[in-house]
Each structure stands twice: as C-alpha cells, then as structure tokens.
Amino acid sequence: MTAPNQPPATPDLLYSQDEEDLRSAVRALLADRADAPTVIAATESDTPYDTRLWSSLAGDIGAAGLLVPEKLGGQGASHREAAVVLEELGRSVAPAPYLTSSVVATETLLALGTEDGPAAVLLGELASGARTAVLAVPFATPPAGAGPVLAGPDGTVRGIADAAAADVLLVPTAEGLYAVETSGPGVAVEALVPLDLTRPLAAVTLTGATGTLLADADAGATAVRRGLLAGAGLLASEQLGIAEWCLTETVRHTRERHQFNRPVGSFQALKHRMAQLWLEVVSARAAARNAADALATGSPDAPLAVAVAQAYCSGVAVHAAEECVQLHGGIGMTWEHPAHLYLKRAKADSIAYGTAGGHRQAVGELTELPAP
C-alpha cells in the first residue's frame, strides 16, 4: 500500500504507440496462422501447438523475451507489452504456451535475481523461444497459496498447464526450487483431458529424476509467488481479449442475421444485453490495464491491482462468451463455429491462478484498514 502522506502514482491505462505496433504484428501473425478453422483442427490433433507459430511469435516478433532484460538475451520490455500479447492470444484462443512459459516461468526465474548461473542461461533460452518451461504447480494455484508441491524429489503433481509441450519443469519442493528436464530419466508426463482443449493439462510424476537446484526453499517460495502473481495479473488481459472478441463477433452477427425482415440486433432486448456487455468489457479493460501497469512499475499495490483484475475480469469473460453462444442461436452450438472455444477458455481461466471469489477475499484482506 502507499505510504502515509504520499500521493499514489497515477496508473497509465492507455496504450503507447509501441504497444499498438506490437498488437498489430501479433494480430497479423495470429490471423495468418491461428484462425478459427486452424485452432479447431489443432484441438482435434495430437499436437495442439503449431511449432511454426510459436517460432514466429517467440523468435521473429520477440514476444517470448519481453520480460527478460536485454543483458540476458531478452527485449527488456515490461508487463504492459506482455499484456498486449496476451490480449491478442485471448482474442484468437491460439494454443501457445505464452502465459505459462514467457510470463509465469520467466517471472519466477527473474525473481531469483541472478545474472549468471543456470537460471540466467535458462532465461536466455526462454527469451529466444528455443525452449519453453512451466512452473510445476496446478493451474488453479492462487498466488497466495503458493508452496512446495512435493515434500521430496519424488511424487506426482496434477493439472499442470502446458507441461506436455514444455522442455523444462520448475519444481518447487520442500528442499528448494529445481529445474527438471522433461525428457530426462524418471520424468513421466501424462496428458489429461481438459475442458479447454486449447490449453492442455498434464500430470507429472517424478521418480528418481535429477534436476538443477535453482534456489533454496525460502527463495524458491518467494519466486513462485511472484511468478503466480504475474500470471494472475496478465491472465486478466487474456480474459479481456476473450471478452472483446465475443462482443465484437456478437455485434457483427446480430447486424447480419435477419428475423421478421429486420436485423435481430435491432430488437431492444438484445440491444440492452449488448450494451451491458460493452460496459463490462470497458471496465474489464481498465482493471486489466491497471494490473499490468502495477506489475510493470513494481507498484507496492500490485497484489491489490491483480486481485481486483481477477475478481472482475473472470466473470466478464465468462459472461461475454455465454452471450456470444446464446445470441448466435443454433450456430453458436455447433462445433464448426469457434464460440465454444471461447466459452471453454473463459471457464477454464475463471479458476486459473485462483477463483474470482478467492481474489475478492484477497481484496478484502489487502484493503483492511489498520486499527486506530
């Protein structure tokens, strides 16, 4: 919280020209490589990730290294730019391990504060897009609930997002934070069937696996909390992208769809529903941008900004996706239309890195006034 007698810094909720240029590049790439038919086809295949798409997004555009300092091989940007990338990924629901690898795992490694050693080497590899890493905790783990997932070197962790495609697992144990190669001996990755087929989940079992110790238990726990906080904060931008696509597509459809010789969007009842949704999306944008700006500037109010963003944006994304399905009528219920992808992603995101209810509780705890 802001110190007494010190005015709080005004958050910058607007997009800079550099951020808009980044948005244009990412949107053009996703329109070319991750349109609706391509994403639907990917969910039906055994390899949901398009390696060419990831190579272009991570390496050619440089999105994977936005949070990594230039001296470690990254772009030296901030959470604001990463949030723009996630807005576009949410808008296309493209299957890409950006949130888990380029945000959560990367932020966890950055929190270790090392400029050399295995963590720095891994950061350089993640920044180039040559490798991906995931934090080996259940996808539903909230920032405040971070802790060792294993008491020792062996055990099973379920519900890890993007583990099946990762090269490295960051495993928090009671002994410390380890980097474990997924292709190494003693590592078994079992794919699970998730609700959201565009973000695969897996169970990881370690049996006598060897790993590189990155930090002791205390430093590792602090790093994991920072990684999950960044993940929860920027997940709000993905949810914003989902909601924006759903609103835009619903408005377009109701303009073109005619009933009783007039566009269905001209009926007053539907106008009210879409107007209400527009207000929710605008508010979600403010909350998501505030969280991204707080993380980018290292604001002491970042935990509060993240909790507010998640408490609000989760519900907006789900509501927008539900309205998209319903107002498309029978078309919205078909497998060929992408509306179901957005509903599933929104529902899965609503419990990722903590539920909206859990974040509302965190808001109450963080804003509790001290006793006089």
TrEMBL record:
Keywords: FAD, Flavoprotein, Oxidoreductase. InterPro entries: AcylCo_DH-like_C, AcylCo_DH/oxidase_C, AcylCoA_DH/ox_N, AcylCoA_DH/ox_N_sf, AcylCoA_DH/oxidase_NM_dom_sf. Residues 16-117 form the Acyl-CoA dehydrogenase/oxidase N-terminal domain. Pfam families: Acyl-CoA_dh_1, Acyl-CoA_dh_N. SUPFAM superfamilies: Acyl-CoA dehydrogenase C-terminal domain-like (SSF47203), Acyl-CoA dehydrogenase NM domain-like (SSF56645). Coiled coil: none annotated. The keyword DNA damage does not apply. Its cofactor is FAD. Transmembrane segments: none annotated. Residues 219-364 form the Acyl-CoA dehydrogenase/oxidase C-terminal domain. Belongs to the acyl-CoA dehydrogenase family. PANTHER family: ACYL-COA DEHYDROGENASE (PTHR43884), ACYL-COA DEHYDROGENASE FADE28 (PTHR43884:SF20). This is Acyl-CoA dehydrogenase.
